[in-house]
Design a protein that fits this description.
two-stranded antiparallel sheet, 280 residues, mainly beta, 61% strand, globular, 14-stranded antiparallel β-sheet
Length: 280
Amino acid sequence: SDNRIYPSLIWSRENEEKGSTITAGAMFSTEYDYQSLGAQIGFSQKTKNRMGTFTAKFQAFADQVKLIAPIELRPGGDDTAGMAARNTFALSLAYSQIINRNFQIELMADGVQQNGYLSLPFHRVYFADGSVHQEALPDTRIKIPVGIRANYFLGDRFILRGYYRYYGDSWGIRSNTASLETPVKISPFVSVTPFYRFYQQSAARYFAPYQAHTAFDDFYTSNYDLSKFTSHFYGAGVRITPKNGFLGVSRLNVLELRYGHYTKSGGMQSDIISLNIGFR
């Protein structure tokens, strides 16, 4: 069995007169084969007319990965192969702007650098000669996503929420993400939100399917999360915000049920149901 514990402590201080906010925090996460220690600092500044906000955040994580090899590659069947380090440094920049009473946009950009052990040690890779190996990937990776988010209010009953992100990294992956959701207010206390998300990515240069790698490859993986694929995720949610509570519970002020159907090229399908309950 595996349990994850991830406490965090965040401190924030706002200067309302200057329109600025500074934050700092520390995070910790532990589970059976992974431990992570992180820290972050952040700063945000509103424009003079309070219509725009610039935000910058820097995060650093020092992680330890347990090197659990596939069972047939464990000497004597022992999975205690020690730990390896993985470090992540991420800078996030965002600028949000209220264009008018109906239209808001946000621009986002991130720069992420990882170094250390970046493979998944338990992933098998079968070579063309039938031999089995442990996944091997470079010990550095740089990720650069940029995106835009926009909300448009069509009167009091309809909202259009759009999002687009382009992603590229030093392993050769390029991806595009686009999503749209449209909350529709049925009554002052009930809204319905249909949504759709499209995702498309190219393969990492180190990916090859089953029995396609050879001994001439310096790096190799058959993890289909690093392959070329497209996916679609669509569904709808119902949100209820009763004025006097729900089911006799006066402090229950939010009840949201969402259903989504996910499909991925290659034949993968899944159905996701989530329930969100809020108390005041």
